[in-house]
Amino acid sequence: QVPLKPGRSLMDWIRLTKSGKDLTSLKGRLIEVTEDELSKHNKKEDCWICIRGFVYNVTPYMEYHPGGEDELMKAAGTDGTDLFDQVHRWVNYESMLKECLVGRMAVKPVAAPKGFFPHVLVFLGRCYNGFLTELLKEPEVFNLVVLSKLLTSNLVFKSTNYDWFQTDSLITIVIYTKQKDMNAELVIVDCQDKQLRGEIILDDHSYLLGIDLDHAVSEDVTVNIAEKVGKVEIILNKKDNIHWKMLGQPWEGHNTFIKCTDRGLFYRKCKLVAKTEVTHDTKLFCLMLPKGTHLRVPTGQHVYLKQVIAGTEVVKPYTPVLPFLPLDFQEPPRHDGVHIYLMIKIYSHGLFTQALDHLQIGDYISVSNPEGNFKKSKIQTSEDLLLLAGGTGFTPMVKLLNFALTEVSCLRTVKLIFFNKTEGDILWRNQLEQLALKDQRFEVQFILSQPSKDWVGKQGKISSSLLSEFVKRSRNDSKVLICICGPAPFTEQGVQYLKDLGYSQEEIHAFTA
């Protein structure tokens, strides 16, 4: 992020969008935009960007963008969807930029190479007859991008299917994924008001179920998983003991596959049940999932919180933590499956965190499905785990520590290098020190940039010299994994310093959202 000028905060932008000012310079008209027309608007004083087929005039937003004008200019006059997804896929741009909407991109048909269509038709016919109708409408002209999506999503996993059966009191939906090592973290179910949504993560794709149920069911949902054969059961309790003639009406996209990066975020409302102080400006929020939700947030992944502030939807990412660090290693602690814990720093001028802090016990907030690309297998194949955290960049490290120290026997050393401004900013200091005493594999090093005169520990900011002192392999040939999280400059500098010290990209995982 970059410092914004006074009067250019998120709240100021929301006020501007509601002022009635024409932010598109089109006097309320929506137009169809060609690639040629889009490319002409590529300057700071005249900047249009396309996101998912919609074109926005972001010129008035330039000074309000937290990432700075230069980041927006990278997509000026072009389709910025891929760049947007890399940096802020979670941002609700439709709400933030709705007053900047210029119109839709004009669809540009692509002529099929001669002789290409019959071969594709035969292939699709063998794999999935459902797509033939659309393609047959115009057999010589079709969108190759759409075709590639069909080939990479709907056809790859066609072997997955589902079935359902009933008793007097139960509805059971069975999904046969045929994927070994299926587990609770890969299955997400939401059932509320006769609407059932299911998602099963299979590598980099999601298998989706979406149904308006034929009859009412109770709030409670049970999910059973046969891990070795990849069978998932979703069990619903009928409200009335009547025979269902059908499961219900399928949604668009029901019983299909989609790349995880292409599907939108799904939210459910969670109740705030506790809020406790961690430091002078950081609190631990405990949220309770609805009864009809089955969701586990995997280690190293985050969720998004969504609030409506002054009529505009605002979204921010946060990484769930545990209610406390694991100090008893007799048995790995299990998530109760009901609560999500979030450690959040409250900024005095932060619109979003101030709104969070004003939530009362019993209030609700929207929480998304988990997101992130971290794989626990990275830890399971390492001998040294080194964690670099800046401030609340400590949050992903909580579950990493828990998993590493309770379930990974091959690790020789686990070290946390924790950067903060002052002693009062250190999160869970006592718990971390107790953990270091309890497990000889674990070591914690606190480094302060603004220490008091009584501080006897290390001081400074992240630097090559500090990292060279503390980031070391236990043996010359040790397999190492280094995870880093913190403010964007901290993470970017840290990754570069690590590379300068000879660590490869494969040995570094940077948490960004």
UniProtKB/TrEMBL annotation:
Tell me where on the tree of life, at the top rank, the source sits.
Eukaryota
- Kind of enzyme, top EC level? oxidoreductase
Q: What is its EC number?
A: 1.6.2.2
| SUPFAM superfamilies reported in the protein's UniProt record | Cytochrome b5-like heme/steroid binding domain, Ferredoxin reductase-like, C-terminal NADP-linked domain, HSP20-like chaperones, Riboflavin synthase domain-like
**Chief place where the protein resides:** endoplasmic reticulum
SMART domains reported in the protein's UniProt record: Cyt-b5
GO (cellular component) term, any one: endoplasmic reticulum
Task: Report the Pfam families cross-referenced here.
Answer: CS, Cyt-b5, FAD_binding_6, NAD_binding_1
Q: Which GO terms describe its molecular function?
A: cytochrome-b5 reductase activity, acting on NADH; heme binding; metal ion binding
Enumerate the subcellular locations listed in this protein's record, separating them with semicolons: Endoplasmic reticulum
Q: Which cofactor does it need?
A: FAD
The answer to whether the entry has keyword Glycoprotein is no
* Domain called FAD-binding FR-type: residue spans: 265-377
UniProt keywords (A-Z) are: Endoplasmic reticulum, FAD, Flavoprotein, Heme, Iron, Metal-binding, NAD, Oxidoreductase
Domain (CS): residue spans on this chain: 157-248
One biological process term from GO is: superoxide metabolic process
Which protein family is it in? Belongs to the flavoprotein pyridine nucleotide cytochrome reductase family.
- Name-wise, this protein is Cytochrome b5 reductase 4
The opening ranks of the lineage are: Eukaryota, Metazoa, Chordata, Craniata, Vertebrata
